[in-house]
Write a structure and sequence with these properties.
By secondary structure, the protein is an alpha+beta fold. Helix content is about 30%, strand content about 30%. It has four helices and eight strands, in the order ααβββαββββαβ. The protein starts with a helix and ends in a 21-residue tail after the last strand.
């Protein structure tokens, strides 16, 4: 049923705005396609006796400033990406009115950094998830300086730590079992 709705919506867009439909089709042609011609790199980390997909940090920034400054927030995200050794793919930010809060995401080759701010509460929540050869903890001082705060609560989760067999599966391997 969903496929019919998507097809019907695509047809409506094509009829209403043929230029947009063609632009979307051209953009889809340029999207990268996964290929099995090259061996895939395993981006799981090995630390402290654990193998895991990546570090997921949750930052709560209290008594923070500059939380309605869109340009400063974008620059802080860019600086955090550089500092952690990650690869920036795209940044999208939205500025809310009337309070000036900002929500956004830096999409990374290694995952993402997201931010949500409440200037009226001097509070920002950040979500930093990175895999591969990155160091997400190095983003903390960047946000501390940008938001002029000394009160940051950090929680960390090692994503994928529960997986016991850490050997990569072949794309032909259909049999696997999740632990419960």
């Amino acid at each position: 049923m969903a496929k019919c709705k998507v097809s019907r919506m695509s047809e409506i867009i094509r009829k209403m705005d043929p230029d947009r439909h063609e632009q979307n089709a051209q953009e889809r042609k340029s999207w990268p396609i996964h290929s099995d011609t090259h061996a895939a790199k395993d981006h799981f980390k090995q630390e402290h006796g654990f193998a895991f997909a990546g570090r997921h940090l949750l930052l709560d920034c209290w008594n923070a400033s500059n939380l309605d400054d869109l340009n400063l927030i974008e620059q802080a995200l860019r600086d955090a990406v550089d500092e952690t050794g990650a690869t920036l793919l795209h940044i999208h930010l939205h500025h809310f009115t009337p309070n000036g809060g900002v929500s956004g995401v830096a999409v990374l080759a290694e995952s993402h950094i997201s931010i949500h701010t409440w200037p009226e509460r001097d509070f920002a929540a950040l979500d930093i998830f990175m895999c591969g050869d990155t160091d997400p903890e190095r983003a903390i001082p960047v946000f501390k300086d940008a938001f002029r705060t000394n009160h940051i609560d950090v929680n960390e989760h090692m994503r994928g730590r529960q997986i016991t067999d850490m050997s990569p599966r072949s794309s032909n391997d259909k049999d696997f079992q999740l632990e419960t």
